[in-house]
């Protein structure tokens, strides 16, 4: 009895492991996105502050002309930064998709193993009962139990 409880607990832990991994993955990617957002906000704020300081330095038509000339460089810098940030965000999403897919594949194999172990565990007591039953009916019920358990195992594999 205690062995069955321990085995069930172990199987439950194995089945919950992918969920734990997925939660850790989601937290890691949320942290990466938050860091990217903070860096982007810092960078854009710094760029805007620099431009405001340059505006405050405008005192004559020549400094105004210089300011306007520099705006094309600022716009190019801003465009490059936005492009880099978008690429970084896309990379984070791509990484997350790949890692979620890997966890899903691991989960499918864990579930398949658990179903197979449950099937084997279910077969063990059924055989013991068929030996203790009357001779004529036990052969037929033992054959049906084996057929039923193999079809449920194959059904579990196809659904996983």
List its salient traits.
mainly alpha
Question: What does this 3D model show about the protein?
Answer:
By secondary structure, the protein is mainly α. It has a domain at 7-113. Helices cover 95% and strands 0% of the residues. It contains three helices and no strands. It has helices spanning 2-56, 61-132, 135-159. α1 (2-56) runs antiparallel to α2 (61-132). The two termini are 29 Å apart. Mean pLDDT is 79; it is low at 128-160.
What's the short version?
The protein is mainly alpha-helical and 160 residues long. The protein has a domain at 7-113.
Summarize model confidence as the mean pLDDT.
Answer: 79
Largest sheet: none
Supply the number of helical segments.
3
Report the order of strands and helices.
Answer: HHH
Shape: rod-shaped
Portion of residues in beta strands equals under 5%
Number of beta strands: 0
Q: Please compute the radius of gyration using only Cα atoms.
A: 32 Å
Class computed from helices, strands and strand pairing: mainly alpha
Low-confidence stretches are: 128-160
Fold blueprint:
Elements: H1 2-56, H2 61-132, H3 135-159
């Amino acid at each position: 009895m205690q062995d069955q409880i321990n085995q069930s607990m172990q199987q439950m832990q194995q089945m919950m492991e992918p969920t734990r991994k997925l939660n850790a993955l989601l937290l890691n990617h949320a942290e990466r996105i938050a860091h990217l957002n903070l860096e982007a906000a810092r960078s854009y704020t710094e760029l805007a502050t620099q431009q405001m300081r340059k505006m405050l330095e405008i005192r004559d038509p020549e400094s105004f002309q210089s300011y306007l000339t520099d705006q094309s460089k600022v716009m190019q810098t801003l465009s490059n930064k936005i492009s880099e940030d978008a690429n970084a965000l896309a990379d984070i999403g791509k990484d997350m998709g790949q890692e979620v897919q890997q966890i899903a594949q691991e989960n499918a194999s864990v579930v398949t193993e658990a179903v197979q172990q449950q099937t084997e565990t279910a077969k063990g007591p059924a055989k013991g009962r068929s030996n203790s039953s009357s001779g004529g009916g036990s052969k037929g019920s033992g054959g049906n139990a084996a057929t039923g358990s193999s079809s449920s195992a194959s059904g579990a594999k196809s659904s996983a």
